Amino acid sequence: MKTSQIFRFFAVVSLAGLLAACSSTEREYDYPVETDRRGRTVYQSETEPGVFGTDGILLVGEREEDPQQGGGGSGIGVNAYLWRASLDTLSFMPLASADPFGGVILTEWYTPPETPDERFKVNVFILGRDLRADGVRATVFRQVRDDTGNWVDAEVEPESDREIEDSILTRARELRIAGLN
């Protein structure tokens, strides 16, 4: 073999090794989802894909769109109507985090002016690209101020989660109808 062929071979092998090393970096995030019977917060873990995403690098051709995903492109990773409706529904609360690719909206604690001794927090998860009744999940947290002035976890009315989800779904339908005209 000539020297130039050996050099090319080692260059290709080195480049392949470099690309392989970059593709395995993943991050894991924990989001509070609910409170158990003892008042402890239960967390849901999500893993963010590596540098090249979950499907790796496409060198030749095009990827086929998955018809189950309801369209695509490089926009947000969840249903746009549910995403917008969730933000509209929770617009009165300060946002802690909003991830349009993962479909996660986390609010900060909100104290209604009428009840200064209680506060609420809402987590919304959009579960896919389809506009479906089971495509959104909301969890409401509530705290009240005790006699010493500290915030203590309190029970949430059982229908609170469902009411928020229904409000989001109603708003999403309104947005879809408005978009069709």
Automatic annotation (TrEMBL):
Keywords of the record, alphabetical order, are: Signal
Alphabetized InterPro entries for the sequence: DUF3576
Signal sequence coordinates: 1-20
- Write down the superkingdom of origin: Bacteria
The protein here is known as DUF3576 domain-containing protein
Source organism per entry reads: Fodinicurvata halophila
Lineage of the species this protein comes from: Bacteria, Pseudomonadati, Pseudomonadota, Alphaproteobacteria, Rhodospirillales
